[in-house]
Inverse folding.
């Protein structure tokens, strides 16, 4: 894994996987990752904010 390609470290010191990493891995882990190329969980979040 290569920093700033596959992941970066956020201001809290956590590793955040990039979209490139997820695509290399080849499947969705269904953890609602920030950079998920399959957008898992994104539609649910958008629908909740639309109902306010």
């Amino acid at each position: 894994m290569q920093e700033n390609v596959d992941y970066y470290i956020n201001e809290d010191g956590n590793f955040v996987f990039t979209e490139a990493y997820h695509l290399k891995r080849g499947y969705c882990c269904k953890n609602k990752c920030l950079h998920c190329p399959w957008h898992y969980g994104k539609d649910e979040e958008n629908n909740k904010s639309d109902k306010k």
About this structure: The mean pLDDT is 87. The two ends are 41 Å apart (CA to CA).
